[in-house]
Write a structure and sequence with these properties.
Elements: E1 10-14, H1 21-30, E2 35-37, E3 41-42, E4 57-58, H2 61-69, E5 73-79, E6 82-87, H3 88-96, E7 100-105, H4 107-116, E8 121-126, H5 130-140, H6 145-160, E9 167-170, H7 174-189
Parallel strand pairs: 1-7, 1-8, 2-7, 3-4, 8-9
Antiparallel strand pairs: 3-6, 5-6
Helix pairs in contact: 1-7, 5-6
């Protein structure tokens, strides 16, 4: 089939906070043609080094709620006290142009995507253990003890939902995890 006439596929990368989704995603994007990243919207404050429109589209609560009311989101959820969402028009623009899209979102959002776009491919990134995840969260030094506890509590719930995903990869060794994701993406793109 002519590539310009092929509709792109939607890949969803999800998993607990601190598991390394962003690192794995960045590596996947650097190694694959016609794979684009859809930048999520959020109401949380930017972390050091994050850029608006690159890492996230940072919105006020009012701006986010206006977009919900307007039906602009493919998926949206409250995660760790902040809102996150993916704009439907961003995904549709890319897939209609024949490019595959990779989302990096939370488990709640992945479940919504599956409901609205059942042909999407859901990939869960799991930590090797909860202890390893806690260590990663602490090493980032971006959350308080209270927030770390909340993220670990949520991680336990999210890990129980991993069976709803098409594929599960464990981020134990970064290079191996990136290779595994690369192989998965290629297998669905053939």
């Amino acid at each position: 089939m002519d590539k310009s006439r092929r509709k792109g596929r939607l890949f969803v990368l999800a998993g607990p906070s601190g598991v390394g989704k962003g690192t794995v995603r960045a590596k996947a994007l650097s190694n694959m043609e016609d794979l684009t990243y859809s930048v999520s919207c959020t109401t949380r404050q930017p972390r050091e080094g994050e850029r608006d429109g690159v890492d996230y589209c940072f919105l006020t609560m009012q701006e986010f709620e206006e977009r919900i009311a307007g039906g602009f989101f493919l998926e949206h959820a409250v995660v760790h006290g902040n809102r996150y969402g993916t704009l439907l028009k961003d995904v549709e623009r890319e897939t209609e142009a024949g490019r595959d899209v990779l989302l990096e979102i939370d488990v709640q959002g992945a479940r919504q995507v599956r409901e609205l776009m059942p042909e999407s491919v859901l990939i869960f990134v799991a930590p090797p253990s909860l202890e390893a995840l806690e260590k990663r969260l602490r090493l980032r030094k971006t959350e308080s003890e209270e927030k770390i506890a909340l993220r670990l509590k949520n991680a336990k719930i999210e890990m129980e939902l991993s069976s709803e995903f098409d594929r599960v990869i464990t981020n134990d060794e970064l290079e191996q995890t990136c290779k595994e994701l690369h192989d998965i993406l290629l297998s669905y793109r053939k």
